[in-house]
Amino acid sequence: MTYRPKSSTQGGARKRRVNMVTAIALVIAGVLIIRLGWVQVVWGPELSLNASEQRTRVYVDPARRGTIVDREGNQMAYTMQARSLTVSPNIMREELKTGTDLALRLAAEETDPENVASYVTIEEGNAYVFASEEQRETILSDKVEERIQSIADRIPEIIKSHDQDVTGISSDEILDKLNADSQYEVLVRNVDPDVASEITDEMPSVAADHQDIRQYPNGAIGENIIGRISMDGEGQFGFEASNDSLLAGNNGRSTQDMSILGQAIPGTLRDQIPAIDGASVELTVDLDLQTYVQQALEQAKANSGAENASAVVLDAKTAEVLAMANTDTINPNEDTGKQIEQGKSFDNPSVTHPFEPGSVAKVITAAGVIQEGLTTPDEVLQVPGSIEMAGVSVGDAWDHGVVPYTTAGIFGKSSNVGTLMLAQRLGEDKFADYLERFGVGQSTGIELPSESQGLLPAREQWSGGTFANLPIGQGMSITTLQMAGIYQALANDGERIEPRIIKSVTDSDGTVLEQPEPDKIQVVSAEAARTTVDMFRSVTQVDPTGVQQGTAPDASIEGYQISGKTGTAQKVDPNTGAYSNSQYWITFAGIAPADDPRFVVAIMLDEPERGVHGGGGQTAAPLFKDIATWLLNRDNIPLSAATEPIILQAQ
C-alpha cells in the first residue's frame, strides 16, 4: 500500500470541526454556569425559603382569652377547653393505603391459595401479592374510600352519642374535607375533650387540636354590652371587640422539622415561645340590676307597643355604668341567624343610636340660668301660651293664656314657652357653651365600640330657628348614655365624669393593672347643681288638685325625694321631612334620691302607643319608678327627709 499524506485542506476541516465542537461545548458550559449562578444568586434565597417552609412547621399555642365578670364577680364571659378535630387528608390517605395494603398481604398469606387464586398469585415462598399492579391499586382505593366514608359517618355518630349538639355537623361536609387535596383540614370544632379522645383513639388519622370555647352563661342578659367573638376567636361585637387586644393575650409558638410525608421529626422542636393569656376584666355592671332592667324594658316594650327601648343606670358619684340595657338583644347561645330574622341584634343602641331628647334636655337651660344668677326657683314669670323667636312661633303642649309660673313650675309643668324665655336671658353664646359643658355632641369615651357623638349643629351654623328648638330638646340628638351623663353631672355637685364600664383589669400573672382616671369637668358649681336638682323635684310632685302637680307624678316614690324630667320629642317623618304629629321618642331621666343622689336612671322609648304598664299615656316615668324602687329597696337606701311642697304656679 502506498502511503499518501493528508492534504492540508482535509486537516484544516477536521481542526475546524474540533474547534466548533469545543466552542459549542464552552458556550453550553458557560450558559449552564450562568444559569447555575442565576439560580444560586437570584432564586437561591427564595428556593431555600420554600424548601425550609416545606420541611418545617410552626405550631401556634393559643393564649387563653381573659374572663369578663360583673362588679360582684359573676361570670359574664369565660373560656372553657375544647378540641377541634383535624386531619391531613394527603397523609391520611397514604397511611390508610399503606395500612390496607399490608392488611391484604397478611390476609393473603393466611388464606388457602385456592380460595384467593382469582386475585392473588404466589410470588415468593408463601407470600401472596395481587396479580397485577392495576388490580392492586383498584382494590386498595376501594378499601380506602370505604374507610374514609366510615370515618365521615362515625364522627357525628360518636358526638351525638354523648348528647353533644350536632347541629351543623354533616357527614357529607366531613367527607368533602377528608377527600380534599391538602395538608390540613378542620373537620369539627367545639368538641368536648373526652369525646375528642374517644374519636382519636378509634381513628388514629384524626387529631384533636386544642381549642377554646367562649361561653356566655347569661344568654341575652348583658349581651349588648359583652358582644361575642368570631369563629376565629377574635372580638366581633361589643366589649369583646373594643377590648380584643386586652382580652386576647399573645399566642405562643414553636417550630419543628417535618418529614417528606409531613410527619413531625422527633427531637427537632425549637424556638419555643410560651403563650401569655389574656387579662381578666371586672366590669362596673351589676348583673342582678342588668337582669332586672333588661327584663323590665322588654315588658315595657310589649306593654306600650314601642318599636324599641333602652335604659342606662349610672352611679351618681362615679359615673360607673351599673346597667345598660336594650330590647331585642340576641342570645348568643341560640340560633343567631333565626334571631336576626326576628329583628334582634348585637347592637348596643344605648351608645350607638342617638335620638332627639325633647324636654328632658331642658335641665341644661335650667342649670345655666341658675349658675348665671339669672333666676331663682321661686321667681314668678308671666308665661303666655306661645312665643315668637326669630320668626318661629313656639307654643306649649296645652292651650293656655298667661300663667304665673315659677321657674320651678316652668320645668315642673314642662313649659316650652317658659323655658325659651329663660334661655333668652342666657343668650345663644352662653347657651351653646353650656351644651358643650354638658357633653352634647361629644362622645363620652365609654370603653365600647361604635359610640355615636350624637348631633349638635356647630354654633356658626345656627339659623334663626335653631335657638327656638335647642333649649327644648329639639334639633339635636343624644344617646341614652349621654342623657344619663347630663343628669349625673348635676347629681354629682356639678362635676361631669366620663362614664366607665371597666372597674379593674388583672393580667395573667395576677397583677392588677392601673386604669386611667376618667376625665372630669366642672359644668356648674356645686350650689347651682344642688339647686337645680332640688328644683326638678317639681316634675315628680303630686297634687290632687293638679295645680301644683308636675308632669311625672308616676315617677314619685313614697318616702324618697325624686328629681327628674320627662321628654317627648317629635320624630322627623321621612316622607315629608317635617316633624311628625304621631311619632315620638319618649324619655325620662331621674335622680334617686334627690337629697343624697345615689343613682341616675335614663330611659328612652321609641314610638310607644300606650303607657309602659299598658295603660293610657305615653310616658316613661313609671318605668323609672320601677327601676329606682328596686334599687333603693335592694340597697337599703335611707328614706329622705320630709320637705315642703314646691310652688309651681303662683296664686
Automatic annotation (TrEMBL):
Recorded superkingdom: Bacteria
A molecular-function term among this protein's GO annotations: penicillin binding
TM annotation in the entry: 21-43
Pfam families: PBP_dimer (PF03717), Transpeptidase (PF00905)
Localization per record: Membrane
Residue intervals of the Penicillin-binding protein dimerisation domain: 61-237
Principal place of residence: membrane
GO cellular component, one term: plasma membrane
Domain Penicillin-binding protein transpeptidase: 310-628
GO biological process: cell wall organization
Keyword set, alphabetical order: Membrane, Transmembrane, Transmembrane helix
Protein family: Belongs to the transpeptidase family.
Protein name: Cell division protein FtsI
Source organism: Corynebacterium glutamicum (strain R)
High-level lineage: Bacteria, Bacillati, Actinomycetota, Actinomycetes, Mycobacteriales
